[in-house]
Design a protein that fits this description.
Strand order of the largest sheet of chain B: 2-3-4
Number of strands of chain A: 8
Shape of chain B: globular
Helix content of chain B: 40-55%
Strand order of the largest sheet of chain A: 3-4-5-6
Number of strands of chain B: 4
Oligomer: heterodimer
Distance between the termini of chain A: 19 Å
Number of helices of chain A: 3
Largest interface: A-B, 79 and 88 residues
Chain lengths: 131, 188
Amino acid sequence: TVGCVVVDKLGHCVAATSTGGRTNKMVGRIGDTPLIGAGNYSNQLCAVSATGIGEAIIRGMAGHTVGALMEFKGMSLAAAVNEVVENRVERGTTGLIAVSSSGEFAMAFNTTGMYRAAADEDGHYEVAIWH
Amino acid sequence: MGKWAIVLHGGAGVISKSMPPEKKEEVERALAHCLDLGVTALKGSSSAMDVAELVVRALEDNPLFNAGRGSVLTTHGTIEMEASIMNGCTKQCGAVSGLTTVVNPISLARLVMEKTPHIYLAFAGAEAFARQQGVPTAETEYFMTDKSIDQLKAVQSKEEASCMAALKQETGPDVFCGELADKPFSGE
């Protein structure tokens, strides 16, 4: 799975996600990333894209839960992403990337690694695989 | 004016730390290339929507990653791709599943969002919509790689071995080899 989340200078958030699925998946299986609210979600506060085992990400309604924790509990982006990755999905199943409308970003995973990269207007630039 | 930021991922799972240095560098170069595309576009005042699509298209075009070219295979050795995109300001979104020929599924997902009254198209309907919109398509061979073929063979041989072992242990008549093959997760 690949994905990208972006917030532009106007504070508009967008999430995009694309996948080939999972090796040896059953023909006709749907459900890694294209379920809006699960592996891909965005609202006025944030944008989220997930990777990993789609079924776990759907059960945890991962993307929407990040947005809901921010909207209804007032959590920061980083806290909301960590809450979902650590407590709302099964261990070893999920990686999340996210941005907020104010320009923060977060990357978290409960697998051994996640191919990822990030940059922001303040000059942060990062490419990483493991913790 | 606010601050821009961009994050991308190329998959998660069990990624061995003993990965050969040249492979690690190849992946990191590819991730940096895609990130640079997005950063340049954001500095040029492109919209978040355009940048997200641009970057995911670049990731789809790279056979290192499991999307578009380089997609993994189903139990039948076929390709079935999925993609989705969502605009946080408007809550507009689009998604596609079961694509077999579309070179950049993310762009078709955006077309579903912008050109239809719907959110989600799948399988034959999604393919027909792709033809109607004239998006680039390719034969199956374009999407398959030696790596994806080897991965499928490895998983299926493991499935057979796991199933046989379970049957030998007399676990009962309800042994479902597909479930056994499901574990452990080795990532994307």
